[in-house]
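note to self — DONT lose this again. spent like an hour looking for the file last time. sequence + predicted structure for the chain T wanted, 92 res
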Amino acid sequence: MIDVKEATNIAADFVNALYSQEQLTNGMLEEVELSDDDAYWYITLGFNHITSGTHPIEPIRIPQTQRIYKTVKIDTETGQPRAMKNKDVPTA
């Protein structure tokens, strides 16, 4: 069985590979959960996603940052990612 540290590294590599063309910064481990049957790790990672928005008055592009969260399901025996989902986090 892979340990939580290895599962976290696999999840981070998986997300970074899928979003290699995106500007993801400030990656952090947010949550870790082992399924009740010990079959899967659920690893939630948070990132800042930088996009370009339009200034409301001037015709210029300005960077905008949005925090996104991804939960990756990792098989505990093989270490293979099995799923990735968006995690909605309420904003204050």
